[in-house]
């Protein structure tokens, strides 16, 4: 979706969120949700699981406790 179409949709966003979402999906996938699915990709997503990092980040020593440098 190009920036002009997106801007038009956002300008109409005064309506219900469901309508905006429907317009975005219709513009992105004209053939519906099945438009861009591939069996290989669906299988990969079925098996994939996010991995958690076991490391804890160092604590921020700044007076605010959460600065852009430390976090």
What does this structure look like?
The chain is an all-alpha fold. It has a domain of 40 residues. Helices cover 42% and strands 0% of the residues. The protein contains 3 helices and no strands. The model has no long low-confidence stretch (mean pLDDT 74).
**Element pattern in H and E:** HHH
The largest pleated sheet is described as:
none
Gap between N and C termini, in Å? 33 Å
Number of helices: 3
Structural class by SSE content: mainly alpha
- Provide the low-confidence segments as ranges: none
Task: Give the structure's gist in a few sentences.
With 71 residues, this protein is mainly α. 42% of the residues lie in helices and 0% in strands.
Task: Please render the helix and strand layout as text.
Elements: H1 3-11, H2 17-28, H3 39-47
Helix pairs in contact: 1-2
Annotation keywords:
mainly alpha; 71 residues; flat; 42% helix
